[in-house]
Amino acid sequence: MKKSNISNNTIRRLPRYLRKLDELGKKGVMRVSSQELGNQLGFTASQIRQDLSYFGEFGQQGYGYNVNSLREQVAEILGLTCENAAILVGCGNIGKALLCNFTFSECGVALKCAFDTDKSKIGTHINGIEIKNSEEILEYIVENGVNIAILCVPQEAARSVADMLRASGISAIWNFTNVDISEPHENMVENINFFDSLAVLKYYVTETKK
Amino acid sequence: MKKSNISNNTIRRLPRYLRKLDELGKKGVMRVSSQELGNQLGFTASQIRQDLSYFGEFGQQGYGYNVNSLREQVAEILGLTCENAAILVGCGNIGKALLCNFTFSECGVALKCAFDTDKSKIGTHINGIEIKNSEEILEYIVENGVNIAILCVPQEAARSVADMLRASGISAIWNFTNVDISEPHENMVENINFFDSLAVLKYYVTETKK
DNA sequence: TAGATTGTTAATCGATTAACAATC
DNA sequence: TAGATTGTTAATCGATTAACAATC
After folding, report:
1. Shortest CA–C1' contact from A64: which nucleotide?
2. Residue-wise pLDDT tens for chain B (210 aa)?
3. Searching chain B, which residue's CA lies closest to the CA of residue A10?
4. Would the pTM of this model clear 0.85, i.e. be above it?
5. Which residues pair with B115 in a beta bridge?
6. Residue nearest to nucleotide D7 (CA to C1')
7. Angle value at C-alpha B139, between B188 and B102, nearest 5 degrees
């Protein structure tokens, strides 16, 4: 039973800690202090210690943190060590990019299958994942206890598909559609929004030129 | 000369305001109050008025905001109305997805060409954009005054390509590589990090189950 | 005019940083 | 032991919210 009063800012820093610890581990570094980790990540040592303290005590006075054990514990905190079943909806270019390049297993996600409305794609496989008929989504989720849906459909379809996914009782949607779907439900939605990201980049590029 | 003391939080809300205003405009809605806009976006009216006030006065007491004019002004603030030349580096699945699906012109980005190291891709076109030899990147940036590089190369290549891009004097990198490249330079980097995003989603999914 | 809603200032709330006793 | 570094509490800083005079 974790405390849910931990700030979203803290949670969003954890994956960055994890990636750095992974990198250090692969280099053979055994121990790291909050100071050193902060230097490498651009955070203060205080912030790292504060963030970690919400979850327990992982270090040792006078020594710092063991890189590998901290890495494992952060992965544990993020829930990456327990598996969730997922499906991918919409096998256009972005869907395909995820299917081909993204290592779902590293995140504790078991990608079961994908869905599309295009008859010519149905029944085929991408990187070992079968593409099924979108009409079967609801049934599939219920029968297979799917927790996570990855939404890669065209913008026009985003809201109706999101509603349908919710009706199925899914726990979370990873939303790649550039459309806000977080509306009424208290359902978990995590957005990857290319437009928002590029707009922010444009702001800073334009600002520094003035 | 804009104030650079405006918080990143504020900047990141602006694209969401813009998308909602766009949606309202397309529906034919002429005016909107900060209250109504807040309701639809899940922000407080105060926050919206506070955010906008950093950039000027866009509303009218007793009336609210004109949807179309506010939309235009937010686009202006974000720098979407002035054009920047961009190149895309790495034409794998993600690169291809961007080339095929993303409307760069809506963001004030003129995508000039793409680059890859794969001989079989060089000289071909994706969605009208030519793929050139990566060896020509540096020269191309300098000669064509390119401001923005979109980094879609494999993880192993991320840092060396980023360093090379910086050496060319580029203003900003839109980074899709899941690798942190913001290290020493004060160069602008905006990240789209699938791993970080899915890890955060997993945290909340796992947390609510306990 | 009366009602509505802005832009802005002040109050509150939350997140980050600094400091330090505990201790390896 | 002495030096280093944690975990945690208190101080600071910044961001959000509330309130309200101005005004359309």
Report:
1. D5
2. 345 689 999 999 999 999 999 999 999 999 999 999 999 999 999 999 999 999 999 999 999 999 999 999 999 999 999 999 999 999 999 999 999 999 999 999 999 999 999 999 999 999 999 999 999 999 999 999 999 999 999 999 999 999 999 999 899 999 999 999 976 556 799 999 999 999 999 999 998 876
3. B200
4. yes
5. B89, B132
6. A53
7. 50
